[in-house]
Amino acid sequence: MRIVITIGGSILISEFTHEMFRAYADILNSLRNEHELFVVVGGGRPARDYIGVARKLGAGEAQCDDIGIDVTRLNARVLITALGESAYPSVPENFREAVRFAASGRIVVMGGTEPAHSTDAVGAILAETVGADLMINLTSVDGFYDRDPQKYPDARFYPEISASEMLEHLSESDVKAGTYEFFDHTALKMIKRSGIKTIIANGSDPENLLRAIDGGIGTTVIPE
């Protein structure tokens, strides 16, 4: 099975330690013999911190996005280091490179590509490009809620939801650099038009990646 996995930067680098990179590398290496894997990583707090500094210095949103992209690619390089020989040694900067690197038979790890594309959008475009059988979005919550469950205890969890319904929920979401939550509009539109099977799950425990592949946790996004 060909799988695109997006891992939020807040999952991989909530603290400046190597443990989560190592744990994910171990899980990914355990899957590589049975599946063709593509991984997209986010920037997390370091990206938001750099973006915040740049914005105070007068940088525009496109400039801020470029800075965030650089951080995501740095995180990708660290994960490649953790994966060792099983990963392609370079970070693709676009989708053509990702496809070319995948011909090596190794795990492809990438960060951002261009301004205004969140980690989720990159993952969805990549999934469409490579014809993925499954996309898994690993985030800091258990799946899709109607609002931030870390702020609102009464937030409603959806074990299943259509991409169209998610678009309605996110119609008022902020689109500034570094502020994306859940899926952005581009990602959801890609899921709809290409029929990409998608699962959103909590990535705080790397073992949840295995559970998500089996369909046992998270929110299933129906591509309609």
From TrEMBL:
GO MF terms held by the record: ATP binding; UMP kinase activity
Compartment(s) = Cytoplasm
The answer, when asked if RNA-binding is one of the entry's keywords, is no
Family matches, as SUPFAM superfamilies = Carbamate kinase-like (SSF53633)
List the EC numbers from the record. Answer: 2.7.4.22
Quote the catalytic activity from the record.
Answer: UMP + ATP = UDP + ADP
All copies of the Aspartate/glutamate/uridylate kinase domain together span 1-202
The pathway where this protein functions is:
Pyrimidine metabolism; CTP biosynthesis via de novo pathway; UDP from UMP (UMPK route): step 1/1
Q: Which domain of life is it from?
A: Archaea
A Gene Ontology biological process in which this protein takes part is: 'de novo' CTP biosynthetic process
Record Pfam families: AA_kinase
* Activity regulation (UniProt): Inhibited by UTP.
Sorted alphabetically, the keyword list is: ATP-binding, Cytoplasm, Kinase, Nucleotide-binding, Pyrimidine biosynthesis, Transferase
Question: Among its keywords, does the record have Manganese?
Answer: no
Q: Which residues bind UMP?
A: G43, D65, T113, E114, P115, A116, H117, S118, T119
Under the heading InterPro entries, the entry gives:
AceGlu_kinase-like_sf, Asp/Glu/Uridylate_kinase, Uridylate_kinase, Uridylate_kinase_arch/spir
GO CC terms, sorted: cytoplasm
- What residues bind ATP, as annotated? G9, S10, G44, R48, T139, Y145, D148
Q: Which function does this protein serve?
A: Catalyzes the reversible phosphorylation of UMP to UDP.
Q: Which family does it belong to?
A: Belongs to the UMP kinase family.
| Subunit structure comment from the entry | Homohexamer.
> What is the protein name for this chain?
Uridylate kinase
